[in-house]
Amino acid sequence: MHLRTILIVLCGLLSFYTNAHTYYSLNTEHEQLGQGFEQELGIPLESCLDGQWQFQGGSMGDLAYRGDFDSDTMINTITGSVKAGINLVIFGGSAKFSMRRKVTKNRNSAASAVELTYEKGSYNFENRTTKPAFVELLSTDPTQVRNRCGDSFIHNIKLGSRIYITAKLHFKDRTKYEWFQTKIKVKFLFFSKTFTKTKVFQEATKDAVYTIQVNTDGGMTPELARLSKNGTMHCKTDNLTPCITYADNLFSYLLDGGDYVDDLKDEHLNVLKYEVESYEDSGHYDLAYAGQTAIPNRYIALSARLRSYQDLVYDEIERLSAFKAVSEDPLEIEQLTARITARNSQRIGLEQAGEYCATLPGTTLCENRIESAIANVD
Asked: Which parts of the chain sit beneath pLDDT 50?
């Protein structure tokens, strides 16, 4: 498929969702149908309802071009959020949380992404009743019920796959990135083999690294796994051909009359997003009026601090890895390897702090764990 054709097709196919209570799934343990949820804090809690899964249908596909957008915009586009902040759980889910940085621009990189989405349909949680253990507990300790069940529950999940083919230009520092942004007005980063680099483009990108990568939220068929088995393709900007060939092969399979749609099976699908409904709106008044929550709002600020450091470390690992992949200088490779190793150690510490805080151990213990992890980030 010619890139011009791709661009024309994609620009008209952006889709937006309008449910303000839709959350971007990070595939954490408790983001399951029927699970209790505290909406104000974005925390999944215990499952306090029995019920049945009912398939709602609604199969659809969507193809979109995402140019020069950031990670928050990406999530808000998926969830249809129009309020401040982004709709995702505040702790945990680090693997998928980091993916949102890989498919969008970040501190020192420009990005263009082609997003291919398939939604098989959705499941509702119906014929619901309060679990007997919580019915009994309501009569003796309603506040405990409130803190364990939240004010809402996950009422609907969307099952499907979302694939991103992302082209990026990584720059050594923020100054070079900002200079590129100033000089290059059109930032469509998927190039054809006949692409002719202008003098301005060559000058603006001479020290950058160009990459093509595949990131998936479900949808990894055996053939796509084979095509992307070598991971991210890295190219110096004076020789883009290997990356262009890699992108062409991916598009031929995914878009250009390829076999991807036929290859995609239920076993390849994930929960992409879910809708949360309050107990009050759904008629579960026993749980809706169980008492006041004692879960501190302080968790929100702690999560924001942790997530900001996670983003910094994720971005740096991606940038360092890009320059290491194209380097031919043994000393530089050694230095970059050491730096990547250090950043990965920091990444693990931050992720472990998030998983710990997801257990809601109390804000003091959570904060201590987060600050201990942050102290190791230089």
From this structure: 1-20, 82, 84
This model's pTM is above 0.70? yes
Question: Would you mind telling me the total number of residues written for the chain in this entry?
Answer: 378
pLDDT of res. 104: 87
Residue 66 has a pLDDT of 82
Of 119, 113, 116, 137, the residue nearest 59 (C-alpha): 119
**C-alpha count within 13 angstroms, C-beta hemisphere, residue 333:** 6
Output the six-digit token pair for 203.
């000058």
Token readout for 311 is: 């983003």
162 contact partners, CB below 8 Å, separation of at least 6: 78, 115, 116, 117, 118, 216, 217, 218, 219, 272
- Cα(88)–Cα(365) distance, integer angstroms: 22
- Mean residue pLDDT of the chain comes to 88
78 contacts 24 by C-beta, under 8 angstroms: yes
What is the C-alpha to C-alpha distance for residues 348 and 91, in angstroms, rounded to an integer?
14
Dihedral sign for Cα atoms in the order 279, 285, 290, 292: positive
> What is the full DSSP assignment across 303-353?
HHHHHHHHHHHHHHHHHHHHHHHH---HHHHHHHHHHHHHHHHHHHHHHHH
Q: Where are the alpha helices (DSSP H) in the chain?
A: 3-11, 71-79, 94-102, 132-138, 142-149, 174-183, 199-205, 222-227, 241-254, 260-263, 285-288, 298-326, 330-357, 363-374
Exposure of 373 in the CB half-sphere (CA atoms within 13 A): 29
Other CB atoms within a 10 A radius of the CB of residue 378 amount to 6
pLDDT of residue 81: 58
Radius of gyration in angstroms for the set of CA atoms belonging to the chain, rounded to a whole number: 23
How many CB atoms sit inside 10 A of residue 46's CB?
A: 16
SS3 90: coil
Phi, psi at 224, each rounded to 5°: -65, -35
**Burial profile 308-337: b = 16 or more Cβ within 10 angstroms, e = fewer:** ebbbbbbbbbbbbbbbbbbbeeeeeeeebe
Strand 49-57 versus strand 233-236 pairing type: unpaired
CA geometry: angle 224, 225, 230, nearest 5 deg: 115
Query: pLDDT tens digits for 64-109?
Result: 888 777 788 777 777 665 454 568 888 999 888 898 889 888 888 9
Contact (CB, 8 A) for 63 and 255 = yes
